[in-house]
Amino acid sequence: MKYGYFDDRNREYVITQPDTPLPWMNYLGCQAYFGIISNTAGGYSFYRDARLRRISRYRYNQVPFDVGGRYIYLRDDETNEFWSPSWQPTQSDILEYTCRHGMGYTTIGSSYKGIEAHTRYFVPLDENLEIWQLTVTNHRSTRAALKGFASIEFCLWDAQDDATNFQRNFNTGQVEVEDGVIYHKTEYRERRNHFAYFGCSAPSRFDTQREAFLGRYRGWDKPKSVEAGELTNSIAHGWSPIGAHQVSIDLEPNETAQFVFVLGYHENPVEKKFDPPGSQIINKRTVKPVIAKYLSPAGADAAFEKLRQYWETTLGILQVQTPDAHTNRMVNIWNAYQCMATFNMSRSASFYESGIGRGLGFRDSNQDLLGFVHMVPSRARERILDLAATQLPTGGAYHQYQPLTKRGNNDIGGGFNDDPHWLIIGVSAYLKETGDWSILDEPVQYDNEPGSEKPLYEHLQRSFNYTLERLGPHGLPLIGRADWNDCLNLNCFSDTPGQSFQTTTNKDGKVAESVFIAALFVYAGRELAAIAQHRGLEAEAKKYIGETEKQLAVINEHGWDGEWFLRAYDDFGAKIGSNECAEGKVFIESNGFCALAGIGLEDGKALKAMNAMRDHLATPHGIVVQQPAYSKYYLQLGEISSYPPGYKENAGIFCHVNPWVMIGETRLGRGDAAHDYYTRINPSARENISELHRCEPYVYAQMIAGKDAPTFGEAKNSWLTGTAAWNYYAITQWILGIRTSLSGLEIAPVIPKNWPGFTAKRVFRGVTYSITIQRKGPGNSISLTVDGQPIDGNIVPIPTDGRKEVNVVGILT
Ligand code: BGC
Ligand code: NOJ
After folding, report:
1. What contacts 520, CB < 8 A, 6 or more positions away?
2. How confident is the model at residue 803 (pLDDT cuts 50, 70, 90)?
3. Residue 521 pLDDT more than 90?
């Protein structure tokens, strides 16, 4: 069953039924001011950091699931009836409900008794505010006398404190109302120099105290002052400051009116906080022109047009036309868009990440670059330098850092022994995309310590050496707290409820080894060698290759189980992911990453490993993490065995790692298998089973319940997942084979046999490549013609004569 449809022309998903299985959400903002918004207008906003600068309040895991948001109410003064055009929170019997989630905006509307109303929500580029444009049309044959109300509940900035510290927070709330604009200024009197505001294009009455607006013991579904038809002009002193505006809407038959509301965040220089100086009144000199600009419908429309253009250009960097509509839609629109969100949010704020927990992950953010770097390389560069500056002098890394301070997060610390290698992979992706070698010479601190600056290149060297200095009894890399799989905690041995599996270390960790990190080391080592080679550092490149060769030999000797690659050795030196094991005999991560890295291509191991994935782990809904699932808690394995079978890392379908197998299949030349795996988890291809899948059909979820789970096929934790970048990378660079390399754009498609070909447009290093691939035979050998001239090999040279348009034709035989 479907709850809507894709409108690819407008790059929208159109939801036509409000009670979707879960809130289906979208992000507003892509720079510094962000919001999350559900299909019924639930959600909240924040500036840069979802924990420390939360602008509006949201209660997670609420009943019903999604309450608290950007709610608009309409009221008919003749009948005294009121309703929400977004269905929530009043849940009235509206007709023609539609929610259009688009690129950086969401429009929600419906009609009720002849009154049609839509609200378009978006964040203009380069501004710290969001616009709500409400359009109301009277389709009745008689005049309509209506009122409109728009409301938001302010958060007292630190979302964690806001949700817990009531003895203080019920006293601190403060607002000002000036010229019809509501200013939320809690703590502005002391150490904050920022405030929020909520303005309206036609203000009449307002409320700023929640209880005055809602009434005692009432929720957002029936606010007392909306019911009464008149806001009370309340001023909040403590308790819960809100912003609510009232507008009058008098419409002749067929008449339309538009109202604009602006919710925003503003900072003043500390010495200019108050106006007049010495008073306690917010200095509004710099914010007033901004508010005025966007409260005008023309200003709002122009900002929307700019946003549309921005996405047109950004997505225009890669557009493909293949025989598969799901591939096209995800590559051209939604997967790229999701990559922007994961880059911006890491794993901080969604409907499943509360915005108070995680900062930016070192591993996560580096991987996110794979799907983002082509869109805004300058921001990728900045992110790389921020990440590298949190690296420790040992080459190890803090697992996370806080976006506002950009400092490593001490609560979680480091010791996840895969982390450092992702920096090499992130930097390599950046170099391949941009050719900007200067980044390697950027001086970057260690652990944000002034004076510790070393060129970024040295950070990569330390990343590589980190593993060499931490090898275990078999010569494989020690796993530390965990590798990619946060839940394979081999040094944890936790028997105390509530202890964090990620930060508890009860063993000194000199035994447990990871075959996955071994593969990662080989892959990253080769990338680093190629970088060294390109810089003319021959001897160094040789050294890296030498070390990866040694590690390959170790993998062959101690990392192979006969039919597939082992996963790890535990703290007792026992195998994990071996046919000898009672449970957890075969795992996806080590096999996927070995094949992706090309390990075992020559001697048939990769082929066997991929066949093992097909025979033991693949399901119609995707490839599970391992089999058999762990049926009980194993002290020596940690969190992985804490999950019931089929969920999360315990044999769930982790959509993040499925692309490793897809890429592995392309390395074997099996395009049909690669694309088949791609399709199994492609959200668009799963749209028809929305009733089962339950998450949004336009973005990936982290996990789909595996075959051991009673809810097999049900997705969870949508939006913020490494799945976005890896699937984008797998389909664009390995299946379609439009691959960035240090020396240019490589064209190496491994597509299904029955595809006659495809076309693509790729903007790469300032040049637009129009690519046509034609299948003339069933294989993957390609011959390329560039602007009519055949070339050797499959790397399209970067034009040296200033040409900006290049035509590439590739014949597959
Ligand atoms: C989750 C992992 C996550 C980890 C770190 C675990 O509970 O299952 O997916 O990476 O927590 O927060
Ligand atoms: C989610 C984490 O964000 C990611 O870093 C990790 O690799 C996966 N979970 C698997 O545990």
Report:
1. 418, 421, 483, 484, 593, 597
2. very high
3. yes
Residues 6+ apart with CB under 8 A from 583: 628, 629, 630, 631
**485-497 residue pLDDT tens:** 999 999 999 999 9
C-alpha to C-alpha distance for 172 and 590, rounded to whole angstroms? 53
Place of tokens 């009720």: 112
DSSP helix/strand/coil, 487 = coil
CB neighbours (10 Å) of residue 757?
A: 18
* Whether the Cβ atoms of residue 716 and residue 701 lie closer than 8 Å to each other: yes
DSSP string, 221-274: TS-HHHHHT----B--BSS-EEEEEEEEEEE-TT-EEEEEEEEEEEE--GGG-B
Q: What is the CA angle 526-529-534, rounded to 5?
A: 130
Residue carrying the six token digits 């200013």:
183
For ligand 1, pick from 488, 502, 504, 720 the residue to mutate: most ligand atoms within 8 Å of CB: 502
If you take atom 4 of ligand 1, which residue's CA is the nearest one?
Answer: 486
| 698-748 pLDDT tens trace | 999 999 999 999 999 999 999 999 999 999 999 999 999 999 999 999 999
Per-residue b or e along 616-646, where b marks 16 or more CB atoms closer than 10 Å to that residue's CB: bbbeebbbbbbbebbeeeeebbbbbbbbbbb
Query: How many whole angstroms from 618 Cα to the centroid of ligand 1?
Result: 23
What is the C-alpha separation between 15 and 6, in angstroms, rounded?
9
Say yes or no: CB of residue 433 within 6 Å of ligand 2.
no
* Each residue's pLDDT tens digit, 2-60: 999 999 999 999 999 999 999 999 999 999 999 999 999 999 999 999 999 999 999 99
d(CA 402, CA 385): 14
In the structure, which protein residues have their CB atom closer than 6 angstroms to any atom of ligand 1?
486-487, 502, 639, 648-649
* CB-ligand 2 contact for 665 (6 Å cutoff): no
Active site residue 179: no
pTM assigned to the model: 0.98
Among all bound ligands, the one having the nearest atom to the CA of 648 is 1
Token pair of 476 as six digits: 């494989």
Residue 217 has a pLDDT of 97
Pairing between strand 12-15 and 715-718? unpaired
End-to-end alpha carbon distance in the chain: 40
Q: If we measure between CA atoms, which residue out of 639, 664, 668, 662 comes closest to residue 652?
A: 639
pLDDT in tens, 322-348: 999 999 999 999 999 999 999 999 999
Q: Residue 281: is it exposed, middle or buried by C-beta count within 10 angstroms (0-12/13-18/19+)?
A: middle
Pair 282, 185: CB distance under 8 Å: yes
Q: Quick check: bond before 799 cis, omega within 30?
A: no
483, 486, 570, 571: the catalytic one is 486
Token pair recorded at residue 787: 């602007």
Q: At what angle do helices 515-534 and 538-558 cross, to 10 degrees?
A: 160
* Interatomic CA distance for residues 296 and 293, integer angstroms: 6
